[in-house]
Amino acid sequence: MNEFELYNFNPVTPEIVKQLEAIVGEKYVIFDDVESLEQYSKDEVPDPAYRTMPEAVVRPSNKEEIAEIVKLANRENVPLTPRGAGSGLSGGCVPCCKGIVISIDRMNKIIEIDRENMMIVVEPGVVANDINEHLEGTGLFYAGYPMSVETCYIAGNVAENAGGGKAIKYGVTARYVLGLEVVTPTGDIIELGGKLVKNVTGYNLVQLMVGSEGTLGIFTKIILKLIPRPTLQADLLCLFNSSDEAISMVPKIITEGGIIPTSVEFMDKLSVQAGCEYLNESLPYQNCGAMLLISVDGNDAEELEEQYITIGKFCKEGGATEVYVADNSSTSERIWSVRRNIAEAFNLISKRQCNEDIVVPPAQIPEAIMFLEQISKKYGIIIPCFGHAGDGNIHARVTCPEDWSDEKWHDSVPLILGEIYAMLRRTGGMLSGEHGIGHKRKKYMDQVVSPEYLALLKGIKKTFDPNNIMNPGKIFDMV
Amino acid sequence: MRIVVLIKQVPETKSVKMDEETGTVIREGVESIVNPLDLYAIEAAISLKDQYGGETVAVSMGPPKADICIKEALSMGIDKGVLVSDRAFAGSDTWATSYILGETIKLLGDVDMIICGERATDGDTGQVGPEVAAHLSLPVASYINAIESFNNNSVSLSRQVEQGDEMLDVALPCLLTVVKEVATPRLPTLDGKIRAKAADIQLITADMLKLNPDYIGLKGSPTRVAKIFRPKVTRECELLFAKDDATIHAGVDKLYAFLDSKEAL
Fold this sequence. Notes:
The complex is a heterodimer.
Chain A lengths: L2 H4 L7 H11 L4 E3 L2 H5 L17 E3 L4 H14 L3 E4 L16 E4 L6 E5 L4 E4 L5 H7 L5 E2 L12 H7 L6 H4 L6 E7 L5 E5 L11 H5 L8 E8 L1 E2 L3 E9 L2 H13 L7 E6 H11 L10 E9 L2 H17 L4 E5 L2 H12 L1 H8 L3 E7 L5 H15 L5 E3 L5 E7 L6 H22 L17 H4 L2 H14 L15
Parallel strand pairs in A: 2-4, 3-4
Antiparallel strand pairs in A: 1-2, 5-6, 6-10, 7-11, 8-9, 8-10, 12-14, 12-15, 13-14, 13-17, 16-18, 17-18
Chain B lengths: L1 E6 L1 E3 L5 E2 L6 E2 L5 E3 L3 H15 L2 E7 L5 H10 L3 E5 L9 H15 L4 E5 L10 H9 L3 E11 L3 E8 L2 E8 L2 E5 L11 H9 L3 E3 L40 H17 L4
Parallel strand pairs in B: 1-6, 1-8, 6-7, 7-13, 8-12, 9-12
Antiparallel strand pairs in B: 2-5, 3-4, 9-10, 10-11
Helix pairs in contact in B: 2-5, 3-4
């Protein structure tokens, strides 16, 4: 860490602050106020080691102001870190090189619902959930669904290419981003893509921007594709005796069951217990070795019923000891809240943990889960696993035993992660499925990607951001 | 033992919208669910059956599509479903509804216990349960938070009151309304859903009940809604902010003066 020592950026001086105030108004600049700045020093990564205080925060209201700020940062050689709602899990919005944080929270308007084209145009600070609330009654919906849907901003979803629980059927955020208006790292305002379903006019820079973690520019307008809203959903909560039994069902549900569910979430014994205890949930989880949460959606009640009965029976044949069904919002909420609260439950159990976001080809999921069980036995630690198993993405929380010293923990982490990443190389997996690299995982990049690939990424960064002022120190270091 | 559970279908509260003009609930296009407080009644009935054996019957009065809620009860483990449905019932208030439900229970016959939720989340009156008991001249125990034990003649209950719990022994047959402390509702199972899908729900209509036509529907409902309005919030809120020693003292002084002026100190 200590990225700010790595690069020779200038400090944010009172003169620079004056210029910022001239651009956005005094009210929208935070400087010299530790308490107010503190909330911009972090995201949802629990480890305080990944936090850095910004020197100033600026809250612009339009693209012109952002362009002015970016030009100022280039002139003064001060780093800029774009920030959405701060619900990220890799430190993407943490100003690890200090400098200025640009918060887009004031740019939160829904610009246009274009029903003829089935698209919506939004400002970057719109809360993801609000999009679908706005679309109520139109018969359309936006299918991006990160787990932090109630808080996260759409720009953060695009910058991290957020995935979430429904990716197995609906894909990740990238699939829905058709156009972007971007302030580039040199302060130009450019439009990429548009209201076009097809477009091969030059390189696909829209998709380059998606998942670029705020290192290639700041989004000021986003055009999203909408699809017809499914009116019905049913969820199955399947209880298994062991992780093996549960996880081996995952690839089979689609290949043998012939149905693409909206989501297939896996929760191992530890996750199930943590989630249920946190919620005071009375499900018979005590003797359960693992659970699968499987959802299907559609518009025809009978067809949906047939689908969940098929999948449910299939799980029972595969060893499920009980299958619960939720086909209305009250039971559905009860089932999903177990899954949604696991992360929070573990945050209370231990602060010393590495939240891994590994992804492997979907068929390799059983192999990956069994490997993680071996690793946890070998090192005497716990690795609760939960996540979007259906799409190959697992959140493995390498958690420090209570009786370990900090030294032992810090010495063991690289060894444990090293073994996990070696497994990723063997299975064709990758470091992060949806949380991103940020400054949290960049030191492990060379363990899973080739030097040539990294060199290309750096070349692209250099082209966009010659002075390296836009979210420096993320994904990789430029020195 | 035979236990009847009275359930109601209600609009899912999160998606409910009000008609600003008439002050009534817009029910079109809103998902219908089992009244959440009735789930505790269903669970109480199923657990009693698990412990003591017998039969559980879910009875709901409503339009034909209320069968979805009866099927939900069946998929949780209720044995039999009865839908009380007739155009002649439209507009019934709690009095007329409880009269019709009471007559239904007479028709079913041989009932040891009737369990209801505390109230429904839409009408919020909490009247139907006790009124059914009145129509049937049965003892009623409301706000039950635990069913302690059970024998052929009576049931031992714990009843939530403001000062604590009342312990009651009530003769059977009787009617209980239960609060959520009574049990945690189980989730419907796949086997339950499959069973519910195939189950025949008994339909009971007006002419099967030998009802007094003056006691049902809008005509039989003494309740009159005179006016529906949104209460005005008359409270005024003042926020006091403090960020250092100087401002905190000023804030405390102000708060003290305020509380003093209200003679709260």
